[in-house]
Write a structure and sequence with these properties.
3 domains; 72% helix; two-stranded parallel ribbon; 2% strand
């Protein structure tokens, strides 16, 4: 049996059309047609790719005298999951909804300290009949409610994302038409993605301006109010970054691009782990310092400092994970 017949038989056995095989091999349908018509022979690189795709040995493909399929050891593994066009659309629609929820949760986490700051500052003003104990108690209750609501959103998104959890984490194949559909959506969203990131970056960069205005006046209560405005602006900026990032990442996962390319998945998991540990540590430092000293009007500085250092940590992490492996 010649190579052309073997490719045809293996393709049909997997239930693929010539278009689907061409998409998986990243060639034109005409190229596949010529292979199966014995008009051309695939290059060695494509032979190796066909061997891996079909799970057969290269000897079986290249040696006409070998009639029986000789499978590689890779066939002992669990079958690779396939993402249909319907599943891809469902995944993208869900991630669009999840992006709004995750962005809202991020915003709630950042502004959760605002009631505590305002009530604490109001307790220092004689005109407001609020005791320090009442201000601290009410402020902490509000903080915990905000954080609890944010965690409820995070956990809810995690549970509802479970049917799609393999996308971006495990090997999978996309059926015919999926890549084209996602690329069209990505192209249509690219402009909005860029604009959202620009607005978010401007908000985060300019967010300290209200605080500087408050510092100039020298009035303690007004300074705290301006601090809350700073946190509010920073929260909106972070929420916009999250909103755009989650939507963009969902398309990259399906296309296996960027951080979700098979060669970069290990690096992505390392960076995600570092990010999680970093922000959990920052939260522990903030809460520990705040409760031990009760200086909530000062401990907020943990967040802008953590934000600045986070960029450095991620940069160092990228330098470490992107190092070429020693030969």
């Amino acid at each position: 049996m010649i190579l052309a017949d073997k490719i045809t038989n293996l393709r049909k056995k997997n239930g693929w059309s010539q278009e689907e095989l061409a998409e998986k091999m990243q060639v034109s349908r005409q190229a596949v047609s010529k292979w199966e018509g014995a008009q051309t022979v695939p290059e060695l690189e494509k032979i190796l790719a066909l061997s891996k795709l079909f799970g057969v040995t290269t000897d079986y493909l290249l040696k006409d005298e070998i009639e029986d399929e000789a499978f590689t050891s890779d066939t002992d593994r669990a079958p690779v999951k396939r993402v249909s066009l319907a599943l891809a659309n469902e995944f993208l629609a869900w991630r669009n909804r999840a992006a709004r929820r995750i962005a809202a949760a991020t915003f709630l986490c950042i502004i959760s300290v605002i009631p505590l700051l305002l009530l604490g500052a109001a307790a220092e003003v004689p005109e407001y009949p609020i005791s320090e104990n009442l201000a601290a108690g009410a402020g902490l209750v509000a903080l915990l409610l905000f954080v609890a609501a944010a965690n409820a959103l995070f956990i809810s998104c995690g549970f509802k994302n479970s049917p799609f959890s393999f996308i971006g984490k495990e090997p999978f194949e996309t059926e015919y038409g999926v890549d084209g559909m996602v690329k069209e959506k990505q192209k249509a969203y690219r402009s909005a993605y860029a604009k959202t990131n620009i607005i978010a970056a401007c908000l985060c960069i300019l967010s300290p301006v209200p605080l500087f205005v408050g510092l100039v006046t020298g009035q303690e209560f007004f300074m705290v109010v301006m601090l809350t405005v700073t946190l509010f602006c920073a929260g909106i900026g972070a929420a916009l970054f999250t909103l755009a990032g989650v939507r963009w990442a969902s398309m990259q996962k399906l296309l296996k691009e960027g951080d979700y390319a098979p060669s970069d998945q290990r690096k992505t998991r390392i960076r995600e782990t570092v990010s999680t540990v970093y922000w959990l540590t920052a939260t522990a430092v903030y809460l520990g310092w705040s409760f031990l000293t009760n200086a909530w009007e000062i401990t907020w500085v943990v967040w802008p400092i953590a934000g600045i250092l986070f960029a450095v940590v991620i940069r160092l992490c990228r330098l470490f994970t992107d190092r070429p492996n020693p030969q």
